[in-house]
Amino acid sequence: MTIDAMTDRGRLIELAEGYLDALAAREPGRLLVAPGLKVTENTQRVSLGAGLWRTVRSVRPGGQCFVDAAAGQVAYWGVLEEIRGPAIFGVRLETSGRSLSGIETVVVRGGDVFEPEVVLADAPQLHEVVEPSQRVSAAELVAGANAYFDGIELTDGERIPMRPQTRRLVNGYGDSSRDPADLDEHQMYLSLDVSPQITAGHYRYIEAIRNRRFPIVDEERGLCHTVVVFDHPGDIEQPNGELPFGAPNSMIIFEVFKMTRAGIGEVWAIGTSVPFGSASGWR
């Protein structure tokens, strides 16, 4: 990187804030972009200013920010208001020098699993700095995330370095360790920890997790921000005999893992359906 590279956490957060301001104003011309800028929305290559830039009306305050200063990358998850209502979205920004060289966006426009206020809320347990003696290396963070994806593919939660009572959120929706009193008969698996859920086959309908990337790794906070594609062939039943989709689809997913020496303690994901077999749009 050059001496002007975005290698400072604060400057990268400011860059993300500037991006959000430009997005809310629908003024992409405010951004300093590098030649050959690459932009995708839900896996599709688009021009800067297209897609949600045309339909956004405001960006709500709050949300989550993830930074890898050494890589010159920052990601933000939040909620925006579009013409037809709220959408959860995540954007990953790549830098070249002081310019934007890549913009990767995932937009979730409603659905059964959709709790935008949770995505916006403060999450100190996710972002707190890990005590130095409890930190894991960047390589271990990536290995932990990969073990989680492998565990789902192999229906083997025991291979995942998971802490008890891990909280997993999908588009803000609590997906593990829930209070059974809040669940109906068909949701009781959500009261289980993540590893037993996986071993019991509750996620075997996810046949493959591919195009795995690990662009943002923050050792200080124990965070690994991944980008993956889930494949759902549509004909694989859950243990209760239900078919989650009944038709093939893939999903583009931003997924973040919080990990210490004790294991993975938080798993957050946002994602949306795309045509079956879709590539992520990135290398």
Structure characterization notes:
The protein is of the alpha+beta class. It has 2 domains: 9-114, Roll (Nuclear Transport Factor 2, Chain: A), CATH 3.10.450; 125-274, Nuclear Transport Factor 2, Chain: A, CATH 3.10.450. 19% of the residues lie in helices and 38% in strands. The protein has 6 helices and 13 strands. The chain has helices at residues 9-25, 52-55, 116-120, 124-127, 138-154, 194-199; strands spanning 33-41, 44-45, 56-59, 64-68, 73-82, 85-96, 99-108, 162-170, 173-174, 208-218, 223-232, 249-260, 263-274. The strands form 2 sheets. Strands 1, 2, 3, 4, 5, 6 and 7 form a 7-stranded mixed beta sheet that branches. Strands 9-8-13-12-11-10 form a 6-stranded mixed beta sheet. A hairpin with a 4-residue loop joins β4 (64-68) and β5 (73-82). The longest helix is centred in the first third of the chain and has 17 residues, at 9-25.
